[in-house]
Structure formats: structure tokens, C-alpha cells
Amino acid sequence: MRARARAACWSPQPRTGGRSARAFASHLSPFTDTAAPTLPAPSQPPQTPSTKAAAPASRKQRRSDDDGGDDDGDSDGSPKKSRKASTSGGGGGGGGGGGGGFTKPVRLSPELAALVGAPSMSRPQLTKALFAYYKDKGLNDPADRRYIVCDAPLAAITGVERFQAFGVQKYLKPHILKD
Fold first, then answer.
1. Which end of the chain is more exposed for a tag (fewer CB within 10 A), N or C?
2. Residue 110 DSSP code
3. Is 90 exceeded by the pLDDT of residue 76?
4. Which are the contacts of 102, defined by CB distance < 8 A and separation ≥ 6?
């Protein structure tokens, strides 16, 4: 029971017995009538990001720094095969919209295609086109700009009068046609 009570009131600060930290420090100092002595300046300046030690070399750099690749562990002494660079530019999802998943171009319903001006586009491109439409028509709710107040063509597509701008994809689902 006592151990639990002590653990509950544990503090990283030293117990000073009601005195200020300075009074407590001077109490511990051997020089009671003067201030505590200052520490001498360090011999080296503190490390800043520019003076830190260099990070270890990456695996590619270490491999290229080797002397000809003789230590690669092959018994026949043949050099290691190098990997070919990817030419597809994958992973980043550039601006083309030709990938898979959300960046795959999808067919749009005639109503939605008339609104955005294209018969097919990817979902991110569709969202971007709709945000441009909101901005051009001034459809943001003045009371809460997270919401969009629909005009007649947009209300025909979404089926609601007002919706959150980032929740537009759930209203577009019936207008994205499967191939």
C-alpha cells in the first residue's frame, strides 16, 4: 500500500523542502557564501546539423566504392549484375492518370461528363475538375466553406442540396461506370 502511494507522488524534480531551486542548489554547493561556480567552456563547440558526422554511406555508394567488386563472394569472380532503372516512373503517380486503382481512368455518366467536360478521367482528376467547377461558380457555403451549396446541374448529379466538399466521391459513385 505504501509503495503504491509513493509511486503515485513520484516526481523527477528533487525534493527541496519548500526552498527555491536556487536556494537548494546553493545548499548543495560547497561555496555557501558565494554563487555556485560556473563550469568551464567546453573544448569543442556543440554539434550543429552542419558539423555532425556524416551519415554512413548507402548500400549503392558502398558497392560503387569497392575496388572492382572482387569481394562479392562469387567463386568464379564474375561481377554482380546491376539492376535496370525503371522507365515507367511508377510509385509517384504523376499527372497522367494512366495507372491502376484510383489513378485508373474511368468512364463517366453523360450527366457528369457534361458537367466536367470529359467522357472519362481518373478519380483525382475528377475531384480536381469538380473543385474548379465549385470555385468558378462560387458554390462554397459562405457560412461554412467546407460545404458546397449545389446549383441545378450539380444537384441533379448528387441528389442533395448541400454536401461536404471532401465527401463528394460518395455522391459520384453511381456516375462512375464500370467497363
1. N
2. H
3. no
4. 122, 123, 124
> Which of 169, 145, 147 lies closest to 157 in space, CA to CA?
169
Burial of 130 (0-12, 13-18, 19+ CB in 10 A): buried
Instruction: Give the type of residue at 103.
Output: T
**pLDDT at position 178, please?**
84
pLDDT of residue 139: 95
Q: What is the pLDDT of residues 86-106, one digit of tens each?
A: 454 444 444 555 678 889 999
Cell of 176: 462512375
Buried b (16+ CB within 10 A) or exposed e, 162-176: ebebeebeeebeebe
Q: Give the pLDDT score at 93.
A: 46
- Of 157, 150, 151, 162, the C-alpha closest to 173 is 157
From CA 166, how far away is CA 43, in angstroms rounded?
57
DSSP assigned state of 140: B
Question: Cα separation of 99 and 127, whole Å?
Answer: 17
